[in-house]
Amino acid sequence: MPEQPPYLRIADELRRRIAEHEWEPGDRLPSRAQIGQECGVGENVVRRAQELLIAQGVLEGRAGSGTYVAEPRQRVRVVRSSAREQGGGSPFRADMQALGKSGDWESRTEAKVPAPAEIAARLGIAVGDLCVRTVYEFLADGRPVQLSTSWEPYDLTAGTLVVLPEGGPHAGAGVVNRMAEIGITVSHAVEQPEPRQASAEEASLLGIQKAALVTHIRRTYYSDQGRPVETADIVVPAALCEIVYEVPVGR
């Protein structure tokens, strides 16, 4: 088995010392030089370990002051399930209500946006074909906890009452219900989650540290004819949210 990188070993050591209450929430950690001397590593190794723990919400950095043990925070539960959308109403609002929070979202839509290569491949269309793009910020008690950028083929909904996801009589009804209004049955969704670091723009919008750990979910909805009808990039901050998948079990 390959040897664990030094910064991961130091991160584990810092977690252990926090778990054993050597440092309590709000305590300032010793300097990187001191920790490095105690653990037999250089300051750069300690810095990488601390950056990892900051991204995970275990530590927090304060400009000009040092690194501190983060206060425990209740993580928002984000439930992923295409089946939940069919019941009407917003699953996100229902999830936030269950946590005693107010759930809402802000959005902006652009029609006739040329599809970039990756989006075109996911939607099974040609590069440059027109799409409806909607950018969302999902809020819990007014605080952003999730970002999403949705793409729909323009030729699929053009001239209908559902062409704008957040406009018209079916605003906010969700992909499944909106497509049903124009005779398209959405049969399933495919999601591909992967961890990565937040971009500078994402960190700014979410109010998290630059390069903090997020989960990036690539989701695509398919009709019962096998056509992709919508694809989205969903970004969830790991320190603020936990992702739970609800899997329907049929007979």
TrEMBL record:
<dbReference type="Pfam" id="PF00392">
    <property type="entry name" value="GntR"/>
</dbReference>
<dbReference type="GO" id="GO:0003700">
    <property type="term" value="F:DNA-binding transcription factor activity"/>
</dbReference>
<dbReference type="InterPro" id="IPR050679">
    <property type="entry name" value="Bact_HTH_transcr_reg"/>
</dbReference>
<keyword id="KW-0238">DNA-binding</keyword>
<dbReference type="InterPro" id="IPR028978">
    <property type="entry name" value="Chorismate_lyase_/UTRA_dom_sf"/>
</dbReference>
<dbReference type="InterPro" id="IPR036390">
    <property type="entry name" value="WH_DNA-bd_sf"/>
</dbReference>
<protein>
    <submittedName>
        <fullName>GntR family transcriptional regulator</fullName>
    </submittedName>
</protein>
<keyword id="KW-0805">Transcription regulation</keyword>
<feature type="domain" description="HTH gntR-type">
    <location>
        <begin position="4"/>
        <end position="72"/>
    </location>
</feature>
<dbReference type="InterPro" id="IPR011663">
    <property type="entry name" value="UTRA"/>
</dbReference>
<dbReference type="GO" id="GO:0045892">
    <property type="term" value="P:negative regulation of DNA-templated transcription"/>
</dbReference>
<dbReference type="InterPro" id="IPR036388">
    <property type="entry name" value="WH-like_DNA-bd_sf"/>
</dbReference>
<keyword id="KW-0804">Transcription</keyword>
<dbReference type="GO" id="GO:0003677">
    <property type="term" value="F:DNA binding"/>
</dbReference>
<dbReference type="InterPro" id="IPR000524">
    <property type="entry name" value="Tscrpt_reg_HTH_GntR"/>
</dbReference>
<dbReference type="Pfam" id="PF07702">
    <property type="entry name" value="UTRA"/>
</dbReference>
